[in-house]
Amino acid sequence: MTFTEAQWGLLAAYRSRGSEAVSGIEVRVYQEHPSKLIFQYVLRAEISRIRVPSLQAPARTDGLWKHTCFEGFVAVSGTPGYCELNFSPSRQWAMYRFNGYRAGMSVAEITMPPQLTVRSLEDRLELDAVVELRDLPGAHPGHSLRLALSAVVEDDSGTLSYWALKHAPDKPDFHHADSFVLELPL
Hints:
Helix content is 0%, strand content 45%. It is an all-beta fold. The protein has one domain: Immunoglobulin-like. Strand 10 and strand 11 (160-164) form a beta hairpin. The chain starts with 8 loop residues before the first strand and ends with a strand.
């Protein structure tokens, strides 16, 4: 699957067990000039029934996936390693590197933190994240990126639902190779 800048993808709930408050999640990712990768998420829902983390000062924070959070997994085609990016509506973020499937995890050293913009409306939550391509190992012109795009949504009861472009067969596992279905040429 290859997206152009204008195309939006729809995330699906794992085994159709999404929150009743959520009507859908749209996502797109594209390159903005040679140095930036833009992730855009739109969570369409009765926002009053979703636990949205309150705005904080932007900061690297672990454990964001335990609450409403948007995620991107980025690999350079032909390599086993990948990066995990977590973007919270609180404006907190995390970025990790893996040498292979859930192996060799380390905190990613970056040159510039992701820039997060969050808009909360009655019927939707929007999050835009701007990431420096130089912070993604091997992301150079002429290469292609493989991406897995996903979200975790916490409803007002505290129940988490898991959303992705494509899910692994056995459980919600955004790291699984089957989830990396989006290709983005640089």
